[in-house]
TrEMBL record:
Domain of life: Eukaryota
GO cellular component terms attached to this protein's record: mitochondrion
Name of the featured protein: Oxidoreductase, molybdopterin-binding domain-containing protein
Positions of the Oxidoreductase molybdopterin-binding domain: 68-186
PANTHER family, sorted: SULFITE OXIDASE, MITOCHONDRIAL, SULFITE REDUCTASE
Biological process (GO), any one: sulfur compound metabolic process
Amino acid sequence: MDLRLDEDLSLYSKYVTFYIPGDSEGGLERNALIKIDPTGFFIRQPPEPHNLNETQTPEASLFQTIHMGAAVVDPIKWRLIVDGLVERPISISLEQLKQMPQTHVTSFHECYGSPLAAPTKNVWRIGCVSWTGVPLRCLLALTRPDLSIGTYVWSDGLDSGTFAGVQSDRYQKDLPIEKALSSEVLDGLGQTPLNGFAVFPCRTEDLLVHSQLYFIMKLTLL
């Protein structure tokens, strides 16, 4: 697979920290977690679809789904690590990420249901949200990924807890490399403000297939 970008990577590379695997930089990402509050599963249902008639969904009408509790994050200590099957793993602080060129997208936003049940019934958790962030493919390109064997990008979150009786030290999701390298996948910094459970300081958002992860701390190519 070829990694061909329209973006000028020099506009991004000056805002990242390259490190050698085994250095202290890798592993610092978990230090940003202050606490999980609230803990446990939480859901806020949106209004029925016929009542969602605005171009952009107000925060008060936007659904919220938290599986294992919400991570309270220290913005100074927060780091995004990008590693795995790459030549040059990178570490990015929140301020570094903010200085990179930003992409702005308004997108349909939907939850397709529970991972514990087959998606046979529409749950109607929908909204329309404005996203701002850095294209994931630009961050991956900076690491010089080995696309001959790397097939998925795994995202790790700072949130932890118990879901469906299973204890986990992190929320984790995978994204096929073909999708991760497409232009519509962002590491999001800003969007419609979320009261209470802010998706802070960063999240991955696939604007087409909606594979997302809150409170992100690490991206690993495997």
